[in-house]
Amino acid sequence: MKKLLGIFAATGLVATTSATVVACGDKVNDLSLVGGDDFNLETLVSKLKIDEDGDGKLDKDYNEVDETYAAQFKMGSVKVTGTLKGTAVNTNTNEFFMQTKELKDDLQMGENSMTGPLYVTTLIGVKGESKAVMYISCLTYNVSGDSVENVSGTIKIKTVGKYELTLPTPESKPDTNEETPSGTE
Q: Where are the domains of the chain?
């Protein structure tokens, strides 16, 4: 089981927090940013680390299927239902959206088991483009076993939210280097 936990931890699939949990079955469609479309956009893009040079374009491709995660779910006799859309960005962005801000990870890890929900953020987009589709998905674990070879159980994947992300361009960012006009205080 330690190998299993190590594999999940290495890709950011393991998180531990204690909080109130909203069931993954709660349907969330289009997401809206807390405080409006521009309020948290730069902070969100910064946290996602998808536009490190600040040019308003994606720094790399984000594929429709994340092969790393797809491989993770093919072990032992774990039955996986649902699909993880996009490439995982290994950061939780629930707090940025009105519809998901109350959703909390509650993955419980025992000696030989993992149970509960974990929220994952994924993106689909093309390097050099200014738009991407962002998804928040819930992975509900009910997995146990004493080794990777003997692990069994289920992982249910459900997309709970989608956001059409347009990266802020350098022109749309406020200029903080402007001088105060002379004669004004």
A: 2-168
Query: Residue 163: helix, strand or coil by DSSP?
Result: strand
Report the alpha-carbon angle 25-166-128, nearest 5: 115
| Cα separations in angstroms, 151 against 78, 79, 146 | 7, 10, 7
φ and ψ of 5, to 5 deg: -65, -35
pTM, full prediction: 0.74
Question: How do residues 28-74 score in pLDDT, each as one tens digit?
Answer: 578 888 877 666 788 889 889 999 999 999 999 999 886 666 666 66
The enclosing H or E element of 165 equals strand 152-166
Alpha-carbon span 92 to 121, nearest angstrom = 6
d(CA 138, CA 73): 14
* Cβ neighbours of residue 165 closer than 8 Å, sequence gap 6 or more: 44, 45, 123, 125, 131, 132, 133, 134
Question: Which stretches of 6-130 are assigned E, i.e. beta strand?
Answer: 77-81, 87-88, 108-109, 113-125
Burial class (CB in 10 A: 0-12, 13-18, 19+), 25: exposed
